[in-house]
Amino acid sequence: MCKIRLYILSISWAIATWCLVGASIDRFLCSSPSAIYRQWSTNRIARRYVIGVFIFYALLFIQVFYCFEASVPNVPVACYGRNLPCRLFNDWVALRVDIVLPSLFLAIFGVLTIRNVQTRMIHPTVHAVNSNNTNNNRLLMRNKERNLTRMLLIQVLIVLPLDLPFGIYRPYASLTSDVPKTEATAKYIPGGEKMSPEDVSGVIALLAGPESQWITGQTLQMSGGVHMT
């Protein structure tokens, strides 16, 4: 069940992110001065876009059923990568395809949309008679530009700063999962110190000796209290 849950979660996260990108592209198309571009802003194109994104990520994440295992000892999650290449592949996919690329597309098409709006705005000629109306129109145009810029910043801030730390942490954790703890990180171990070979050899000697003849089907966690069951 954990593989199915992880598969659905990965696809849902990707679709939600790229739907934001699709909305940004659609705003660029419908605000374009070119009639050819505006013809691409239709419900049918939007449905095809969503279906295409779903099929792409459904195929991309199908490897979850092979790369992940359930109930792996000494890990704090229900599903964990089978090996380092599997973990790195999924981590880099999450970083690039789900975080970096969507943020880049949101910024690009957001700026293009603002440019389209500025291009299509009518700038009236200033006369003494209608100077008040002209000032009101300019104020209205500035407000529209500020609203569009604010919308662009909110979209980018939702995807990039909130997701990027987690996206960087995942490959870092995979690359350093087998690296011995330093003195700086050892203080976060409840046991108070790093594990030494002598600590492991005592348990091995116990399990290999006759004293362990009644110990069967057990998982012994030697993590100094980092992982507890």
TrEMBL record:
SUPFAM superfamilies: Family A G protein-coupled receptor-like, NAD(P)-binding Rossmann-fold domains. InterPro entries: GPCR_Rhodpsn_7TM, NAD(P)-bd_dom_sf. Residues 1-169 form the G-protein coupled receptors family 1 profile domain. The keyword Transmembrane applies. GO terms for cellular component: membrane. The keyword Cell wall biogenesis/degradation does not apply. PROSITE patterns: G_PROTEIN_RECEP_F1_2. It is found in: Membrane. Keywords: Membrane, Transmembrane, Transmembrane helix. The chain crosses the membrane at residues 49-72, 92-114, 148-169. This is G-protein coupled receptors family 1 profile domain-containing protein. It comes from Rotaria sordida.
